[in-house]
Design a protein that fits this description.
The complex is a heterodimer. Chain A has 16 helices and no strands. By secondary structure, chain A is an all-alpha fold. The chains are: A mainly alpha, B mainly alpha.
Chain lengths: 379, 386
């Protein structure tokens, strides 16, 4: 009896996890594995650690503890660059965020941008993906334009040349991505079509656009579009640049969609055909719904890259977030605090982009589960 | 029963109808745009055609490898622009590849600090627009660096200041010319050695070790040329004067900002490619190689790298192309690349259409050449399956 008790205590029942050996537990073990696993690792730890110890406290002091936060030029000047002057950002934040939009009316771009952020957050979860969300987004865009443009509902009219800052970045991104999706789908279908002419035209377009930098497309938008339109018809620069970004993005979107189409098995096409569906019926009811869901994470990535690419419009003298920062650095009094300005705008971009890329990863994981499910059922 | 050629009731007939309709739409749209353009150009009294290329450009170009004066023709100005684009792209590609590989390997390190640092690098650089980074680098090089009269001495005789980076350069003489002439010979000889080793392995199964002899030959031939030319050792050394740094060879702050910006930005993308390429080699490959008794270095050289490179090279090439295309952002910070020069030309003579056609055809040519090279590479490394 006693023997069996001893055995039971010495030898836990099969299946119960045994604690890891002492060497693999605790802080020391963690340090050994993660920081000092061999000579090189130890050397790297010491090197990086020393650099961090040297740089970090100074950086924190420069960035936060000694920094001036109030828009007080004298206090900033007394700092003599020994610490950050966030006063520049505090002074100019409305110029940076909203560009040259009339000062008294800046609640409108603010409200419009907040509306878009809320709409993005609401439609981020897959449970919100219904037909209604498209209608909702169409109305969000309409409200956005009405708010910015004015001229109705008692809002004063603000011409698009004065739009700037974050709202301009947002609107160029949204219009560019949403308009390029249908174009991209058409191009992708044409590129995979068995009609030689459609295939050739679409391939030529996609490869040409992907071969040139966005800046040339923006040049085309600002210099060549006015030449292409009939006399008397004028488009403002915002519309031309939005069209340029859309045409550029469509080529990339087409490749994304084509990737999704190639991800579907031949059996889907054949099954649709054997049910007697026509080409367009098959595309609409069977192929595209599956292909598009597969590439939603890539759509988010396109949204991200378009968001960053719109910063190029500053080259054709539009004042998006980047351009508006340069505008505010034009003030001779504050122009020496450019580092603070760049850090602030970079932080805005960074937060938005990191959120989007994390979201895209999460979505990929989740949709990956969804796409894998039939495979597990089959076995 | 003979159906008509363009019949809606057969598949091939419908295909023909669609294509005819598409062709008609393209032709009509193209014709409409063309006639609009003709009218607009006439109304604005802008001439068309490429004849302006032979006229003197009249504007100056700040820097470049190509000797250029404002009285040279537009063609020559564009050539200087292309040379500047290629110059920043080639140096940038080399730097970005080295940095990207280091950061990519660092992201796989078992050391938390190294891994965290590399991850932070990639996340920050990839999530801030390149043009903002370029503006920041440009402001740093032109505002934070010391005045040209009191530069930082990075290394002996290498000076960094608001005037750019100045470093010593050998004085061109017969010895260097001979060395330059011998360098291709050396590379050809090394290549021949590799060919011979390969042929021998296929014939006998024995692999001669030719890596070190090949490197030796490739280095020795230019060295012999240099010796034969009298072993010139004269250097053009930059010197700090009262106002600036004179002598040596220098690059402008614009070039420096563009180069650093492009290289660090692209390195973040290359790091991700390198990382995923290494992860793509299954662990079983390493274990199998160890099981047949290969050493760690052999495993890396013979098993892991060849397989990782097959995954890495295609996206890496597209990053190289991206860097080249992104170098067009030079226009924002005033480095005279192809796009900046075209921009100046457009502002001067208004011939936007022609200038943009020139930009596009240069970039498309670069793309096409790279695509051809990639196709060749892919055929060579493609897995040969049954």
């Amino acid at each position: 009896m006693t023997a069996s008790v001893e055995i039971a205590s010495a030898c836990p029942p099969p299946g119960a996890p045994r604690p890891p050996p002492r060497r693999a537990r605790g802080l020391l073990a963690w340090l050994r594995v993660n920081l000092f696993s061999n000579v090189f690792s130890a050397a790297a730890t010491l090197l990086v650690g020393a650099a961090l110890v040297r740089v970090l406290p100074g950086a924190v002091r420069w960035l936060f503890t000694r920094a001036v936060y109030a828009p007080d030029y004298e206090a900033c000047r007394r700092l003599a660059y020994r610490a950050a002057c966030w006063g520049f950002v505090a002074e100019k934040h409305r110029l940076i965020l909203f560009g040259r939009y009339p000062y008294a009316e800046q609640w409108r771009p603010l409200a419009a941008t907040l509306l878009v952020i809320v709409a993005l957050a609401v439609s981020a979860h897959p449970s919100a993906w219904r037909r209604g969300v498209l209608v909702a987004w169409a109305s969000v865009l309409a409200i956005f334009f009405t708010l910015l443009r004015g001229g109705a509902f008692g809002l004063s009219y603000v011409e698009s040349g004065l739009w700037g800052g974050l709202p301009l970045t947002v609107i160029l991104t949204l219009v560019g991505v949403s308009a390029s999706i249908p174009l991209g789908i058409a191009l992708a279908l044409a590129r995979r079509s068995h009609l030689p002419l459609a295939r050739a035209a679409s391939t030529l377009y996609i490869e040409m656009v992907r071969g040139v930098p966005l800046i040339t497309v923006l040049f085309v938008a600002s210099f060549v579009f006015p030449l292409l339109l009939p006399q008397g018809l004028r488009l403002d620069v915002l519309a031309r640049v939005a069209i340029g970004i859309t045409l550029f993005q469509a080529a990339y979107m087409a490749e994304v969609v084509r990737g999704g189409l190639q991800g579907l098995s031949r059996g889907q096409h054949e099954a649709a055909a054997s049910l007697g569906l026509s080409f367009w019926q098959a595309q609409r009811k069977v192929i595209l719904p599956q292909a598009l869901v597969l590439v939603i994470p890539s759509f988010v990535n396109s949204l991200l890259s378009t968001f960053m690419d719109t910063s190029l419009v500053t080259v054709v003298s539009m004042y998006d977030l980047t351009g508006a920062l340069r505008l505010s650095l034009g003030d001779p009094q504050w122009r020496n605090f450019f580092l603070e300005g760049y850090l602030f705008v970079a932080a805005v971009y960074f937060v938005c982009c990191l959120a989007m890329s994390r979201y895209s990863h999460w979505l990929e994981h989740r949709l990956g589960r969804w796409a894998r499910r039939p495979e597990t059922l089959r076995t | 029963m003979k159906r008509s050629f363009l019949s809606w009731s057969t598949r091939s007939g419908r295909a023909r109808i669609y294509q005819v309709a598409l062709l008609a739409a393209l032709v009509v749209a193209g014709g409409w745009l063309w006639s609009n353009t003709r009218q607009n150009l006439e109304a604005r009294q802008i001439r068309s055609g490429f004849s302006f290329l032979e006229e003197p450009a009249g504007f100056d170009i700040g820097e470049g490898a190509v000797p250029y004066t404002p009285s040279d023709s537009y063609v020559w100005a564009f050539a200087a622009g292309v040379a500047n684009t290629l110059r920043v792209a080639i140096v940038g590609i080399a730097l970005a590849t080295v940095l990207g590989t280091l950061v990519g390997v660092g992201r796989l390190s078992r050391n938390v600090l190294v891994r965290g640092l590399c991850t932070a690098y990639v996340e920050v650089l990839r999530n801030v627009p390149l043009i903002l980074q370029l503006f920041a680098w440009y402001t740093v090089t032109t505002e934070l660096l010391p005045e040209a009269a009191s530069p930082i001495e990075l290394a002996p005789n290498v000076y960094l200041s608001k005037g750019g980076l100045q470093f010593p350069v050998p004085v061109w003489s017969r010895g260097w010319a001979l060395a330059a002439a011998a360098a291709p010979l050396g590379i050809a000889a090394a290549w021949g050695l590799f060919r011979w080793a390969r042929a021998r392995r296929e014939r006998t199964g024995h692999t001669p070790q030719v890596l070190w002899p090949a490197l030796f030959v490739a280095a020795a031939l230019p060295f012999a040329g240099w010796l034969a030319g009298g072993a010139p050792r004269a250097l053009d050394v930059p010197e700090v004067t009262a106002f600036n740094v004179a002598g040596g060879i220098g690059v402008t702050p614009e070039f420096l900002a563009l180069l650093i910006g492009l290289a660090t930005f692209t390195a973040a993308y290359i790091a991700e490619i390198v990382r995923s390429g290494i992860l793509a080699v299954p662990h079983g490959q390493t274990e199998a190689a160890a099981a047949v008794g290969l050493s760690r270095r052999q495993i890396l050289r013979l098993i892991v790298l060849p397989q990782a490179l097959r995954v890495i090279i295609p996206p890496l090439t597209s990053q190289f192309l991206n860097l080249t295309k992104n170098s067009s952002l030079a226009v924002a910070i005033g480095y005279p690349d192809l796009v900046s020069i075209a921009n100046t030309a457009i502002n001067q003579n208004g011939q936007a259409l022609e200038c943009i056609i020139i930009i596009m055809s240069v970039y498309l040519t670069i793309n096409l050449l790279t695509a051809l090279g990639m196709g060749y590479y892919n055929r060579r490394v493609a897995l040969v399956e049954r």
